[in-house]
C-alpha cells in the first residue's frame, strides 16, 4: 500500500490524512483527530487500517530542531 501524501485529505474535514481505512465497500481517509475519534467503530468494519500518524511526531521534531 503506498504511503499517503499531502494530496490525501480527511473525508471528515479536509485536513491532511494520516490514516487510511479499507473496507469491503471501499476506503476512507482520516486526519489523526478523526481517526482517533472513530477508531473503535472503524475497527469493526475495516479490512485493513494504514496508520501513518507517527509521521506527525517526526514532523514536529524536525520543526523543533529547525526553530532551535
From TrEMBL:
Name of this protein: DUF7455 domain-containing protein
What sequence ranges are listed for the domain DUF7455? 5-56
Give one Pfam family.
Answer: DUF7455
Query: This protein's superkingdom?
Result: Bacteria
Q: Which organism is it from?
A: Georgenia deserti
Q: Which InterPro entries match?
A: DUF7455 (IPR055878)
Amino acid at each position: 500500500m503506498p504511503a499517503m501524501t499531502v494530496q490525501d485529505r480527511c473525508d471528515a474535514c479536509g485536513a491532511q490524512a494520516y490514516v487510511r481505512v479499507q473496507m469491503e465497500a471501499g476506503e476512507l481517509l482520516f486526519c489523526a483527530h478523526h481517526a482517533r475519534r472513530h477508531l473503535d467503530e472503524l475497527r469493526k468494519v475495516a479490512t485493513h487500517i494504514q496508520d501513518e500518524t507517527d509521521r506527525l511526531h517526526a514532523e514536529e521534531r524536525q520543526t523543533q530542531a529547525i526553530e532551535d
